[in-house]
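From the thread on structure requests for the teaching lab: each student submitted one protein with a one-line request. Submission from student K.M.:

"Model Cobalt-precorrin-5B C(1)-methyltransferase from Yokenella regensburgei, tokens only."
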Amino acid sequence: MSEQPFDAPVWHNGKALRKGYTTGSCATAAAKVAALMVLRQHVIRQISIVTPSGVTLCLNVESPHIEGEQAVAAIRKDGGDDVDATHGMLIFARVTLNSSGAIVLSGGEGVGTVTRKGAGLPVGSAAINRTPRQTIEAAVREVIGPARGAEVHIFAPEGEARAQKTYNARLGILGGISIIGTTGIVTPMSEDSWKRSLSLELEIKRAAGLERVVLVPGNHGERFVREQLAIDGDIVVTMSNFVGYMIEEAVRLGFQHIVLVGHPGKLIKIAAGVFHTHSHIADARMETLVAHLALQGAPRALLALISECDTTEAAMEHIEAFGFQHIYSHLAKRICQRVLQMLRFTKNPPVCDAIMFSFDNQVLGSNRPVELIAQALRC
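Reply posted by the TA:
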């Protein structure tokens, strides 16, 4: 399916909603234009980038400044009609060229610092997520060529104040905002419209003859399926937080085999019978872990540590230390039981499998051997 132009609106209830772009796109564009200004030694007022989703953005540059082998530039965040805490703020990049051959990326004022596990980034690092890191480095490398090096410093003077309106502190990201965005584009959409767009993808795949589908919360799941299961991404559909809805849609459309693949942070909730996994609906991750670990004979010391964790990633560290990694396969079986219980009135329910993986793309557990699941998906 071809990518819609950036300026094509999203329609909802007869109203045209304007798209925006992420903090990751802002940081990428700011870094690219700062690198260009150093090389050309003149101010540039507009810059274009290609986002990870393939959309080309042409963005206005603010506060450009050049000083020798260093330049600074800013891009103003625009969330379109999906306004959030970062809408309208300036994201800056300072690029300093050197002869090292390496690009070193860092975060400064207003960019949060990761203070505990769970964000998918090392503790102590700047809260610049994986995709923006890749796009920033790629954009700068494109400008400076293969031989030069550069220090790229991302900062956002309003970031610390703006972060007070986000969930960053709860995630252990302190002192500022996160530089995020897996597609580079912000698409405003109501929940109903969002669900319908996900279901439409299921319909298209079923119409093409697909009988088996892998449902994942987001892009990390698709990458795991492609890289670790060696299965074509065409079999993967994003379910976001709408687990129950997407399972029911898959059943309605006649899929014979459903595989739920994701990080424990999302999938654990399904083991508790929570089929809408957004935190504003329900969040019993630690309680679910504690209950099932107790059933598996875990010591009280481990249960106490898990109950105090804020993120599943932090809890997983304790689980490994106590040697209870088998809990993930136990939970995967429980997830499948919950799905079949939800579908108990379905005449011919599909085969259900579940696989949990870690942030570094390794299998944590599954309801049956992963090789068998992958083999079934290839049939």
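TA comment: The mean pLDDT is 91. The first helix runs from residue 23 to 40.
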